[in-house]
Amino acid sequence: MASDTLTPEVEAAVKAAKDRLDAHAYEIVQWHFHESTGCPFWLEKKKEFNFDPLTEVKGYDDLKKFPLFEDEWLRGGPVRRWVPAAYQDKPIYVFETGGTTGIPKSRIAIDDFRTDYSNFSETLPDKYFPKGANWLMLGPSGPRRLRLAVEHLAQVRGGICFCIDLDPRWVIKLIKKGQMDQLEAYKQHCIDQAITVLTAGHDVKCMFGTPKLIESLCLGLEEKGTTLAEAGITGIFSGGTEFTPQWTRYCIEELFGGGPEESGIYMTPTYGNTLMGLACSKPVTAEEGYKISYYAPQPRAVTEVVSFDDPNELVGFGETGRVKLTTLTKEFFVPGFLERDEGEREKPYLTYPWEGVSGVRPFHGFASSTTVGVY
Amino acid sequence: MLNIPAIRWGKPYDSLEKEDVVHFRTGEPIAQLSQVGGGILKRDMKKAQSARDALLEFSPAEILEKMATAGKLYLEADLPIGDGSQTPAAFVHAQSASTGLPEHMCRANMQKNAFVMQNMTQILDSLTRGLDLNILARGYGKEPARDVMLSYQAQSPVLGAVLPSNSPGVHTLWLPAVALQLGLVLKPGGKEPWTPYRIYSAMVEAGLPAEAFSLYPGAGGDVGSALLSSVDRAMVFGGQQTIDQYAGNPKVQPHGPGFSKILLADDVVDDWPQYLDLMVQSVFANSGRSCINASGIWASRHTKEIAQAIAEKIGPTEIKDPTDDEAALAAFTMPGMAPAVWNMIESDLAEDGVTDYTAPYGERLVQMERCDYLKPMVIHAETPEKQVASKEYMFPFVSVVECPQDQMIKKMGYSLICTAITGDEKFARELVNATHIDRLNIGPIPTHKVDWLQPHEGNIIEFLFRSRAYQSAPVQVAAT
Which residues does the UniProt record annotate as the domain Aldehyde dehydrogenase (chain B) (predicted)? Predict the structure, then answer.
């Protein structure tokens, strides 16, 4: 990891983080490829490799020996082939992503989602996300990780979570059919439920919402002559490629009525998915043009920004490339998965002494065929 | 390079997201256009009534006078745009460079828009059938000649429009809204922001209140959808899919393909050479891009000779630089569009009884590094049932269809403009009664010759105002 312009303090932190990552990568590969602990999928796949992961992977950089992870491997069953031998008797969840057309991608989960969100909880300022406050989860649930994860976040902070469901698969179908009036009606249906919860005396102070739903919620509250702040919300976390600097600026300046000190509302962007967990953001400020830079929850997951032509080649800092993800948990091992997103490679800093990614948006190679902004 | 902000009720808004408007041949950026999201528009629409209130500060007569001034400024002045300004020549050059339309056609469209602004008094007199505009402004009033109360209610304080990038002439359709004291909410086309911005600029320079206007460049699926769902009266320009999507929605007036036609009736068809130039112009004007261009010529006989003769006139047309006054063809600037159109045409040509009369004049699809062209096409269809008989494309393309006169009205389908060349009164009467014909020309009138003193593509007065009952009686008020 290049660090030629970093301060000595950050450089030392970067080196320590890299050492931790190397040790973690070694441990995770040992776990997933050992007969006593590994899952059927990887033990079977091992036979195809021209190297032995148990002896030849000593650190993170050795993960390049694996072929790129193909998302097709996640489509279809049996899903139990992903369960590590050591966890066969644990209660297993399955989380899905995609699935508007064809078979969705599935991953098994046991406690990873709780760990991700417990860790994320540590990054939230108590001033705006008060311990013990109740939460509103305004986003997709069903077979997705998000509902359980946000609920856990609320619980780990001593609160209770109210949930509004939204089915993104139905939303995508409406968009593809051009039934925008139905889309509006469905969105309004979700917002009506959210407003009901917020105005029912449940002492909800924190919430998760997708950008479009936060926007609609604010507009819906305005219609009723009130605001998100008056409804009691002080802390919001949100996420996704729709979370752009321009949207953040509009949201903070116009929907909230100013930054946290002025409006009383603090919003933090995140970038997460079923495979990675949750990447946190460097604080977003008007002074920096609302730039959003994400840092993966290393060493449990690593994001790299790689060349469009060669996924093993990092682009320079500040340059554009495709986001490549590696997940390294005992529940799930994903080496070198090319995300459907692109962005710019960001330098490490003291809070997150590993590299990040900014300007995340749909990979331009997919842009014409991907329906984005579904919720 | 120009930096063009969004306009929110007259105030510039410089977005953090910008899209380059590029030259269609060189790829060189001409301007950076701010992109805003639908949420901003929706929120701004809560202040829509202020736009109408600002215009109601002026009498209709004052607004008409200012619009005439705006028309002159639009045509002749150096007007501000974004962080710079534009002379008329620079405007024409920029518009041509981003849309692919030859410069002389841009100039012609400019004349069209200016004419409408400068003659709005007569146009509204025609569209309202002589109604005193003060009745629309006040909402009610007595008809001067008779002692009858009239009342009209504006159905929205603003007119919205999701604008296209292909033909700068369509802007004439929304211009009357300002004179009717309705604010304007526009989503400019990504490749043709020039006309709406210049008209806005001209109107403000002429003294109309800036707070009556909003321009929101951005993605159609987001800001366009937001506009159509949050404004009570709006126009949208698009393809057949767009038309189908909004058909039956009383809040939206969709404008798409015109499927305009020329019918040569049995009483005149033997004299078809007399009308050859009219047919050629109707197909060929404005590079065939407009919905008022003829895409079908129907006759019961001589159709092969007609197709042959039109093909001889327009088939050999060559591609020329857009600055050339002789340039007659516009480029397809959206990647992949021209090859996709060509694939559809090839599929239609595979049908028996369908003949391409422009085939001898060389390849029709010309692909260049950053843009493509389709050269003019004249296709003959032996019967109206052939697929090609109901097609329209954004270049000079016409199908000459053989069809007995007594089946024409039934089989021709929807026509925005129908020019029926006939002296047969019975046939003319049947055409008058045909509900799938919008603008009807009886006699040798080119389809693209538009009389602005006639309603066009739906009367905008009927779209924006509702006629209603209004009664009043004196009330005795207690003395204070």
Answer: 18-451
